[in-house]
From TrEMBL:
Pfam families: DUF475. Keywords: Membrane, Transmembrane, Transmembrane helix. The keyword Cell division does not apply. This is DUF475 domain-containing protein. It comes from Mycoplana dimorpha.
Length: 361
């Protein structure tokens, strides 16, 4: 699973994703047969794995674009490391270890006991995971909100999709800490809508999400600066790698929790979301190799707007339940509109170029 060195056909980029899909769906069908002993049960688990994969892909369009934005500035060595080690961490770390870790902390039991609980008492396991949704949503929502706001609050940003909003944000970016102040205000607003212990949990978790973002930024900058002095080949490597791993974790929170609405079996969830993660990896490689972000100038904007929408939805989920399908479709719609706007811009530029050429003749 190495990063390709040159552009290839679109199907070629998804070769590993197709292989993992076939293996994962067969494994899901086998689990269904082993657990129920019926064709119907096997088909049900097969279908759930497929739906979870689609859910993960729909929730992660923006993740792939943001990953590609960061990866394009990394050396081939670090690109390869992220696309190999990173996918292992994404699939096994976030889809298996992370849910187990939550249960270990919440139920105050050992890792082995958590695995046994997931296998023998999936209902209890799901209950513990759902109870942990509030702090997870507060932490992940805050981190993603900082990611989105930092992109728009940039005084050097000169390409604007929704100019009325983005030009103002770029102008106010000269005020130090404006995005942090904005997030802190939102934290206070949402905490006031909650009561008692829930409000305290939301505030503490959100602050931890904010501090994590700032820590990743500081540590990443320090690591990359030190690596630049030691080796030019390591430039932009480890710090960006850490940033992308934490970002992927934040994107995964919503999908992991939402998966329990379809099944309470941890292993089925891991298969379905793991398949989806492989497609995100393949999309990331294709975007980097084909230079899609440069070709479609507003695509990146759509992804970061989708991130902001997702962060707000995660905040709102601490108050009311919002189906994951809305989250996925909302992000996909924003990216689709930004792609359409980019195509329109490119056509306009080509038309103007032809007119200019005719005038010169």
């Amino acid at each position: 699973m190495t990063a390709p060195s040159r552009p290839q056909s679109a199907i070629g980029y998804f070769k590993w994703a197709f292989i993992v899909t076939a293996f994962g769906l067969l494994l899901g069908a086998w689990l269904g047969w082993q657990s129920t002993g019926t064709i119907g049960g096997m088909a049900t688990v097969f279908f759930i794995c497929a739906v979870l994969a689609v859910l993960e892909i729909s929730l992660s369009f923006d993740n792939a674009i943001v990953n590609a934005n960061k990866l394009k500035d990394m050396t081939p060595v670090w690109q390869h490391r992220f696309l190999t080690w990173g996918i292992v961490i994404a699939v096994f770390g976030m889809r298996i270890v992370f849910p187990l870790l939550i249960v270990v902390i919440a139920a105050k039991i050992g890792p082995i006991e958590a695995i046994v609980l997931a296998a023998r008492e999936p209902g209890e396991y799901a209950r513990i995971m759902n109870e942990a949704h509030l702090p997870i949503a507060a932490f992940g929502g805050t981190f993603l909100m900082m990611v989105g706001l930092t992109y728009f609050f940039d005084h050097e940003k000169d390409v604007h999709w929704i100019a009325a909003i983005e030009k103002r944000m770029a102008r106010y970016a000269t005020i130090k800490g404006v995005e942090i102040a904005f997030v802190l205000i939102l934290i206070l607003v949402f905490s006031n809508l909650l009561e008692g212990e829930a409000a305290d949990t939301f505030v503490y978790s959100a602050i931890y999400g904010l501090l994590t973002f700032l820590a990743v930024e500081v540590v990443g900058g320090m690591l990359d600066a030190s690596q630049q002095t030691m080796s030019a080949a390591a430039k932009g490597g480890l710090g960006a790698f850490i940033y992308l791993e934490v970002l992927d974790a934040s994107f995964s929170f919503d999908g992991v929790i939402g998966a329990f609405a379809l099944t309470q079996n941890l292993f089925i969830i891991a298969i379905g979301l793991g398949i989806g993660a492989m497609y995100v990896r393949s999309m990331t490689i294709m975007l980097v190799d084909k230079g899609t972000l440069a070709e479609y100038r507003y695509l990146e904007h759509g992804a970061f707007y989708a991130i902001l929408i997702l962060s707000v939805i995660m905040y709102c989920q601490t108050l009311v339940h919002i189906p994951e399908v809305i989250t996925g479709l909302g992000g996909a719609a924003l990216i689709g509109i930004s792609l359409w706007s980019s195509i329109r811009y490119n056509r306009k530029e080509k038309a103007e170029g032809r007119e200019q050429a005719v005038e010169n003749v």
